Amino acid sequence: MLNPETLDTIVSRGVSDIISRDEFIRLLQSGRPLRLKMGFDPSRPDIHLGHVVGLRKLRQLQDLGHQVILIVGDWTAQIGDPSGQSATRPMLTHEQVMENAQSYLRQFFKVVDQDRTQVVEQSEWFGKFTLADVIGLTGRFTVAQFLQRADFAQRYAEQRPIALTEMLYPLLQAYDSVAIESDVEFGGTDQMFNLLVGRELQGMMGQTPQQCFMMPILVGTDGVQKMSKSLGNYVAVDEAPADMYGKIMSIADGQIVRYYELLTDLPAAALSDVRRDLAQGSVNPMEHKKRLAWDITSQFHDADAADAAQAGFERVVQGRGLPDDMPEYSQEAIIKSSGGNLLRMLVDVGLASSVSDARRLMSQNAIEVIHPDGTRTLLIVGKGAEINPGDVIRAGRRRFVRITE
Question: For residue 199, how far is the Cα from the chain centroid?
Answer without folding.
Answer: 26
